Amino acid sequence: MPRRMRLLADTRPLRESPPFRRLWTGTTLSATGGMMTAFAVTLQVYELTHSAFAVGALGATRMVPTLTIGMFGGSLADAVDRRRLVLVTSSCLAAISGLFAGQAIADLRQLWLLYVLVAVQSAFGAVDAPARRTFTPRLLPPGRLSAGLALNQLTFQLTLVAGPALAGLVAAAGGLRLCYLIDVASFGAALYGLARLPAMPPEGGSASRGPRAVAEGIRFILASRPLAGAFLTDLNATVLGLPVALFPAINAERFGGSPQTLGLLTAAIGVGGLVGSAFSGPVGQVARPGRAMLVTVSIWGAAIAGFGAASGLWLTLGCLAIAGAADTTTVVFRGTIVQTAIPDQFRGRITAADYVVGYGGGEIGNLESGAVGSLASPAISAISGGLATVAGAAVIGLALPAFTRYRGLPPASGEAVEDETRAQAAS
Fold first, then answer.
1. How many domains are contained in the chain?
2. CB–CB of 246/369 below 8 Å?
3. SS3 for 337?
4. Cβ atoms of residues 191 and 94 within 8 Å
5. What is the pLDDT of residues 307-342, one digit of tens each?
6. Nearest CA to 321 among 237, 254, 265, 245?
7. For residues 210 and 44, is the Cβ–Cβ distance under 8 A?
8. Residue 414 is part of which domain span?
9. Is the pTM for the entire model greater than 0.85?
10. What is the C-alpha separation between 411 and 207, in angstroms, rounded?
């Protein structure tokens, strides 16, 4: 491959594995529809209440079922055929999107119903998302795993940036009900991609279910230095350095509180993440993902500290874009460690833990940064949080040398990949 092309995202998993290509395409379309529903629900709640608190309560409505059900969903994924499980959960999520559309078409205007639907949607999503993440290691050979995870992250960044913008255009043209209906239709692509996958029972036998299985997964994480280091590094970045809750206050202090500027602050991290995903080619060649994760988290922390200290708009946006690119790369390294450091019979539970840590850490991080910003100032909160993130990465590296030394699976040679994927092509 020419050297100039190595910077770009490695698309060979899409070319070499038809099952992965179908899954990726369906997931991308469905994720875009999901962002349209998220946009529509937020706007509908505000139109019903004209209350920022009511809109904020949607976060708590999503968080509670995610944190309480996520780990138990992982134990279920280790006990049954994961493909069949995700077919069931995705079908239920499609039905819930249909109920969102139904209430909008009927113009029921019931706030409680929206909260109930959001909570049920989050409960199924807490089972669906971790189980779905276990597919990539089964569909791709080891040498393509990092590239596949980077493509999955590219999907997330694309939908994060394009989904709300598309939803705004659709809502303006056809109302919120059309956003919901497009989401329902998008599930057709996701279900088609899932239906064409091979059966995916856990390798090594089915695990037990319930609290005992969850406890086994937690003990496995604590005993594995690579996994413990990956989760601690992620929590270090999100709990100490997440700046999103500070955006309105910093926008008001520095830029006059313009809604357009606030939108730029919000979009900057997503744009940086999209660029980082598009130029993720070198990620698959990194031999020590733990050490690399510490480096990218340190870049994230330094960029957030720069955001807190910056005065001009373009410097502020540049720092946030750098932070977004570093965060995207961190997520890919973390996913590589999670998917390569565990046996398949634990994959559902550990992936669920990864999902819960990523979601819960973000919510706690927003609370922490908002609290420090209220007690001191928004700038001090961002600067101190960013510097603490850098220091935390250094402490983790010193305390867990096995994490920094951990070697991911080496990239597969072209011939080996062709041999391993030739059989998949018929699936």
1. 1
2. yes
3. helix
4. yes
5. 999 988 999 999 999 999 999 899 889 888 888 888
6. 265
7. no
8. 3-425
9. no
10. 30
